[in-house]
Amino acid sequence: MSDVFFQELGIPHPKYNLNIGSGSHGAMTGAMLAAIEEILLKEVPDFVMVYGDTNSTLAGALAASKLLIPVIHVEAGLRSFNKAMPEEQNRILTDHLSNLLFVPTQTAIENLSNEGITAGVHNVGDVMYDGILHFSKMANEKSAILHELGLTDNSYLLCTIHRAENTNNIERLQGIVNGLNDAEEQVVLPLHPRTQKYLKDYGIELGEHIRVIEPVGYLDMVRLETGAKKIVTDSGGVQKEAFFLAKPCITMRDETEWVETVENGWNVIVGADAKKITHAIKTFDPQIERKQYFGDGTAARQMVELIINY
Predict the structure, then answer these.
(1) Which of 108, 151, 178, 241 is 20 to 30 Å from the Cα of 100, by its Cα?
(2) Nearest to residue 41, comparing CAs of 72, 58, 16, 74?
(3) Of these residues, 25, 122, 147, 162, which one is catalytic?
Protein backbone atom coordinates (compact mmCIF):
# COMPACT_ATOMS: atom_id res chain seq x y z
CA MET A 1 0.00 0.00 0.00
CA SER A 2 2.98 2.36 0.44
CA ASP A 3 4.18 2.24 -3.18
CA VAL A 4 1.55 4.71 -4.35
CA PHE A 5 2.85 7.36 -1.93
CA PHE A 6 6.34 7.26 -3.45
CA GLN A 7 4.85 7.58 -6.94
CA GLU A 8 2.28 10.30 -6.28
CA LEU A 9 4.22 12.53 -3.94
CA GLY A 10 7.63 12.35 -5.62
CA ILE A 11 9.28 10.76 -2.58
CA PRO A 12 12.58 8.94 -3.22
CA HIS A 13 12.31 5.19 -2.70
CA PRO A 14 13.94 3.91 0.50
CA LYS A 15 17.47 2.54 0.46
CA TYR A 16 16.30 -0.29 2.74
CA ASN A 17 12.98 -2.11 2.90
CA LEU A 18 12.71 -4.54 5.80
CA ASN A 19 9.65 -6.32 4.36
CA ILE A 20 8.29 -7.01 7.84
CA GLY A 21 4.58 -6.87 7.19
CA SER A 22 2.56 -9.10 9.49
CA GLY A 23 2.66 -11.01 12.74
CA SER A 24 2.05 -10.34 16.42
CA HIS A 25 3.09 -7.04 17.96
CA GLY A 26 6.03 -8.63 19.75
CA ALA A 27 7.24 -10.57 16.72
CA MET A 28 7.03 -7.56 14.42
CA THR A 29 8.66 -5.14 16.84
CA GLY A 30 11.44 -7.60 17.66
CA ALA A 31 12.16 -8.34 14.00
CA MET A 32 12.24 -4.63 13.17
CA LEU A 33 14.47 -3.86 16.16
CA ALA A 34 17.06 -6.40 15.05
CA ALA A 35 16.95 -5.34 11.39
CA ILE A 36 17.13 -1.60 12.13
CA GLU A 37 20.04 -2.09 14.53
CA GLU A 38 21.99 -3.84 11.78
CA ILE A 39 21.39 -0.92 9.41
CA LEU A 40 22.35 1.67 12.03
CA LEU A 41 25.62 -0.13 12.75
CA LYS A 42 26.38 -0.06 9.03
CA GLU A 43 25.30 3.53 8.29
CA VAL A 44 26.30 5.24 11.60
CA PRO A 45 23.78 8.11 11.24
CA ASP A 46 23.93 11.36 13.22
CA PHE A 47 20.26 10.97 14.21
CA VAL A 48 17.37 8.57 13.85
CA MET A 49 14.06 10.27 13.08
CA VAL A 50 10.84 8.38 13.82
CA TYR A 51 7.30 9.49 13.18
CA GLY A 52 4.03 8.84 14.96
CA ASP A 53 3.15 5.80 17.04
CA THR A 54 3.53 2.60 15.03
CA ASN A 55 5.52 -0.49 16.00
CA SER A 56 8.26 0.66 13.61
CA THR A 57 8.39 3.99 15.48
CA LEU A 58 9.19 2.22 18.75
CA ALA A 59 11.59 -0.24 17.11
CA GLY A 60 13.55 2.60 15.49
CA ALA A 61 13.71 4.57 18.73
CA LEU A 62 14.84 1.55 20.75
CA ALA A 63 17.50 0.54 18.24
CA ALA A 64 18.93 4.06 18.11
CA SER A 65 18.78 4.66 21.85
CA LYS A 66 20.65 1.46 22.66
CA LEU A 67 23.40 2.52 20.24
CA LEU A 68 23.49 6.02 21.81
CA ILE A 69 22.28 7.66 18.59
CA PRO A 70 20.06 10.72 19.25
CA VAL A 71 16.38 10.10 18.53
CA ILE A 72 14.09 12.66 16.90
CA HIS A 73 10.36 12.04 17.39
CA VAL A 74 8.00 13.80 15.01
CA GLU A 75 4.42 14.06 16.33
CA ALA A 76 5.53 13.69 19.93
CA GLY A 77 3.40 14.28 23.01
CA LEU A 78 0.10 12.80 21.87
CA ARG A 79 -1.90 10.94 24.49
CA SER A 80 -5.22 9.11 24.38
CA PHE A 81 -4.73 7.94 28.01
CA ASN A 82 -5.79 4.47 26.91
CA LYS A 83 -2.82 2.18 27.46
CA ALA A 84 -4.71 -0.76 26.02
CA MET A 85 -3.92 0.77 22.62
CA PRO A 86 -0.58 -0.38 21.14
CA GLU A 87 -0.20 3.11 19.69
CA GLU A 88 -0.36 4.67 23.16
CA GLN A 89 2.33 2.35 24.47
CA ASN A 90 4.55 3.08 21.45
CA ARG A 91 4.25 6.86 21.66
CA ILE A 92 4.88 7.04 25.43
CA LEU A 93 8.01 4.87 25.26
CA THR A 94 9.31 6.70 22.19
CA ASP A 95 8.87 10.11 23.82
CA HIS A 96 10.88 9.00 26.85
CA LEU A 97 13.72 7.81 24.59
CA SER A 98 13.86 10.92 22.40
CA ASN A 99 16.33 13.81 22.39
CA LEU A 100 14.38 16.12 20.10
CA LEU A 101 10.59 16.04 20.38
CA PHE A 102 8.65 17.89 17.69
CA VAL A 103 5.09 18.36 18.92
CA PRO A 104 2.09 19.51 16.87
CA THR A 105 0.08 21.36 19.54
CA GLN A 106 0.26 23.09 22.91
CA THR A 107 -1.68 20.18 24.43
CA ALA A 108 1.18 17.86 23.48
CA ILE A 109 3.64 20.17 25.29
CA GLU A 110 1.50 19.92 28.42
CA ASN A 111 1.24 16.12 28.14
CA LEU A 112 5.03 15.80 28.02
CA SER A 113 5.53 18.26 30.87
CA ASN A 114 3.17 16.19 33.03
CA GLU A 115 5.51 13.23 32.47
CA GLY A 116 8.61 15.25 33.31
CA ILE A 117 9.75 15.72 29.70
CA THR A 118 10.73 19.32 29.00
CA ALA A 119 14.20 19.21 27.40
CA GLY A 120 14.37 19.20 23.60
CA VAL A 121 10.63 19.83 23.19
CA HIS A 122 9.57 22.16 20.35
CA ASN A 123 6.07 23.09 19.20
CA VAL A 124 6.55 23.31 15.43
CA GLY A 125 2.96 22.59 14.39
CA ASP A 126 1.71 19.59 12.50
CA VAL A 127 3.59 18.33 9.45
CA MET A 128 0.30 16.87 8.17
CA TYR A 129 -1.02 20.42 7.95
CA ASP A 130 2.02 21.23 5.79
CA GLY A 131 1.03 18.27 3.62
CA ILE A 132 -2.60 19.28 3.21
CA LEU A 133 -1.66 22.84 2.28
CA HIS A 134 0.82 21.56 -0.28
CA PHE A 135 -1.10 18.65 -1.79
CA SER A 136 -4.82 19.55 -1.59
CA LYS A 137 -4.58 21.79 -4.65
CA MET A 138 -2.69 19.05 -6.50
CA ALA A 139 -5.35 16.53 -5.49
CA ASN A 140 -8.13 18.73 -6.87
CA GLU A 141 -6.24 19.12 -10.14
CA LYS A 142 -4.91 15.59 -10.67
CA SER A 143 -7.31 13.20 -8.96
CA ALA A 144 -10.16 11.84 -11.08
CA ILE A 145 -11.60 9.68 -8.29
CA LEU A 146 -14.93 11.51 -8.04
CA HIS A 147 -15.46 11.30 -11.80
CA GLU A 148 -14.48 7.62 -11.83
CA LEU A 149 -17.00 6.86 -9.08
CA GLY A 150 -19.72 9.07 -10.53
CA LEU A 151 -19.76 11.29 -7.44
CA THR A 152 -20.27 15.02 -6.98
CA ASP A 153 -19.09 17.26 -4.17
CA ASN A 154 -21.09 17.10 -0.93
CA SER A 155 -23.19 14.17 -2.17
CA TYR A 156 -21.72 11.42 0.02
CA LEU A 157 -20.21 10.52 3.37
CA LEU A 158 -16.62 9.28 3.46
CA CYS A 159 -15.89 6.47 5.92
CA THR A 160 -12.72 4.67 7.00
CA ILE A 161 -12.50 1.79 9.49
CA HIS A 162 -9.17 0.14 10.27
CA ARG A 163 -8.31 0.16 13.99
CA ALA A 164 -7.85 -3.22 15.62
CA GLU A 165 -10.07 -2.19 18.54
CA ASN A 166 -12.96 -1.89 16.06
CA THR A 167 -12.19 -4.57 13.47
CA ASN A 168 -11.12 -7.36 15.85
CA ASN A 169 -14.22 -7.03 18.02
CA ILE A 170 -17.44 -8.38 16.55
CA GLU A 171 -19.69 -6.29 18.80
CA ARG A 172 -17.91 -3.05 17.93
CA LEU A 173 -17.71 -3.79 14.22
CA GLN A 174 -21.38 -4.80 14.12
CA GLY A 175 -22.34 -1.61 15.98
CA ILE A 176 -20.40 0.53 13.51
CA VAL A 177 -21.95 -1.20 10.50
CA ASN A 178 -25.44 -0.93 12.00
CA GLY A 179 -24.92 2.80 12.43
CA LEU A 180 -23.70 3.19 8.86
CA ASN A 181 -26.48 1.00 7.50
CA ASP A 182 -29.06 3.35 9.03
CA ALA A 183 -27.55 6.39 7.30
CA GLU A 184 -29.69 7.93 4.57
CA GLU A 185 -26.85 9.25 2.41
CA GLN A 186 -24.49 7.27 0.22
CA VAL A 187 -21.39 6.15 2.13
CA VAL A 188 -18.08 5.71 0.32
CA LEU A 189 -15.89 3.18 2.14
CA PRO A 190 -12.29 2.57 1.01
CA LEU A 191 -12.03 -0.84 2.64
CA HIS A 192 -8.92 -1.71 4.62
CA PRO A 193 -7.82 -5.35 4.10
CA ARG A 194 -8.15 -6.14 7.82
CA THR A 195 -11.66 -4.73 7.94
CA GLN A 196 -12.62 -6.70 4.85
CA LYS A 197 -11.34 -9.90 6.46
CA TYR A 198 -13.29 -9.45 9.68
CA LEU A 199 -16.51 -8.42 7.93
CA LYS A 200 -16.32 -11.73 6.07
CA ASP A 201 -15.29 -13.75 9.12
CA TYR A 202 -18.11 -12.30 11.25
CA GLY A 203 -20.70 -12.49 8.46
CA ILE A 204 -21.52 -8.77 8.80
CA GLU A 205 -23.31 -7.32 5.78
CA LEU A 206 -23.06 -3.74 4.57
CA GLY A 207 -26.13 -1.87 3.32
CA GLU A 208 -26.63 -1.30 -0.40
CA HIS A 209 -25.99 2.43 -0.01
CA ILE A 210 -22.47 1.73 1.32
CA ARG A 211 -20.14 1.81 -1.65
CA VAL A 212 -17.03 -0.27 -1.02
CA ILE A 213 -13.93 0.68 -2.99
CA GLU A 214 -10.33 -0.47 -2.89
CA PRO A 215 -7.88 1.46 -0.68
CA VAL A 216 -6.81 4.63 -2.48
CA GLY A 217 -3.64 6.68 -2.75
CA TYR A 218 -3.01 9.92 -0.91
CA LEU A 219 -4.17 12.32 -3.62
CA ASP A 220 -7.38 10.35 -4.22
CA MET A 221 -8.00 10.21 -0.47
CA VAL A 222 -7.56 13.96 -0.11
CA ARG A 223 -9.94 14.51 -3.03
CA LEU A 224 -12.52 12.21 -1.42
CA GLU A 225 -12.13 14.19 1.80
CA THR A 226 -12.53 17.57 0.12
CA GLY A 227 -15.64 16.33 -1.68
CA ALA A 228 -17.34 14.64 1.28
CA LYS A 229 -20.32 16.11 3.10
CA LYS A 230 -19.08 14.57 6.38
CA ILE A 231 -16.31 12.17 7.36
CA VAL A 232 -16.85 9.11 9.57
CA THR A 233 -13.62 7.49 10.73
CA ASP A 234 -11.52 5.82 13.40
CA SER A 235 -8.27 7.18 11.94
CA GLY A 236 -6.24 9.80 13.77
CA GLY A 237 -4.83 11.25 10.57
CA VAL A 238 -8.21 11.49 8.88
CA GLN A 239 -9.62 13.29 11.92
CA LYS A 240 -6.98 15.98 11.47
CA GLU A 241 -7.42 16.22 7.72
CA ALA A 242 -11.17 16.63 8.21
CA PHE A 243 -10.44 19.53 10.57
CA PHE A 244 -7.95 21.12 8.17
CA LEU A 245 -10.50 20.87 5.33
CA ALA A 246 -13.46 22.12 7.41
CA LYS A 247 -15.35 18.83 7.19
CA PRO A 248 -17.51 17.64 10.12
CA CYS A 249 -15.82 14.57 11.59
CA ILE A 250 -17.59 11.71 13.37
CA THR A 251 -15.00 9.61 15.22
CA MET A 252 -15.79 5.97 15.92
CA ARG A 253 -13.54 5.63 18.95
CA ASP A 254 -14.01 6.04 22.69
CA GLU A 255 -11.32 8.74 22.91
CA THR A 256 -9.01 10.73 20.66
CA GLU A 257 -5.49 12.12 20.83
CA TRP A 258 -6.66 15.11 18.80
CA VAL A 259 -8.67 16.67 21.61
CA GLU A 260 -8.44 20.12 20.04
CA THR A 261 -10.73 19.09 17.18
CA VAL A 262 -13.37 17.99 19.69
CA GLU A 263 -12.97 21.04 21.92
CA ASN A 264 -13.38 23.30 18.88
CA GLY A 265 -16.63 21.54 17.97
CA TRP A 266 -15.62 20.05 14.61
CA ASN A 267 -15.23 16.46 15.82
CA VAL A 268 -17.66 14.33 17.81
CA ILE A 269 -16.76 11.05 19.57
CA VAL A 270 -19.38 8.34 19.09
CA GLY A 271 -17.53 5.09 19.85
CA ALA A 272 -19.03 2.03 18.20
CA ASP A 273 -22.59 2.92 19.29
CA ALA A 274 -24.94 2.48 16.31
CA LYS A 275 -27.48 5.04 17.54
CA LYS A 276 -24.83 7.67 18.25
CA ILE A 277 -23.26 7.11 14.82
CA THR A 278 -26.59 7.45 13.02
CA HIS A 279 -27.61 10.47 15.08
CA ALA A 280 -24.32 12.25 14.37
CA ILE A 281 -24.58 11.51 10.66
CA LYS A 282 -28.03 13.10 10.63
CA THR A 283 -27.49 16.07 12.92
CA PHE A 284 -23.81 16.94 13.45
CA ASP A 285 -23.22 20.18 11.55
CA PRO A 286 -20.68 22.52 13.20
CA GLN A 287 -20.85 26.18 12.29
CA ILE A 288 -17.99 27.28 14.54
CA GLU A 289 -14.84 29.03 13.35
CA ARG A 290 -11.88 26.65 13.44
CA LYS A 291 -8.95 27.70 15.60
CA GLN A 292 -5.31 27.55 14.49
CA TYR A 293 -4.15 24.76 16.79
CA PHE A 294 -1.77 23.02 14.40
CA GLY A 295 0.73 25.68 13.39
CA ASP A 296 1.10 27.76 10.27
CA GLY A 297 2.12 25.14 7.72
CA THR A 298 5.88 25.52 8.26
CA ALA A 299 6.47 22.56 10.57
CA ALA A 300 8.92 20.81 8.24
CA ARG A 301 11.01 23.95 7.71
CA GLN A 302 11.18 24.57 11.46
CA MET A 303 12.22 20.98 12.13
CA VAL A 304 15.08 21.18 9.61
CA GLU A 305 16.39 24.38 11.22
CA LEU A 306 16.18 22.90 14.74
CA ILE A 307 18.01 19.73 13.67
CA ILE A 308 20.78 21.73 11.98
CA ASN A 309 21.20 23.85 15.11
CA TYR A 310 21.06 20.92 17.56
Answers:
(1) 241
(2) 16
(3) 162
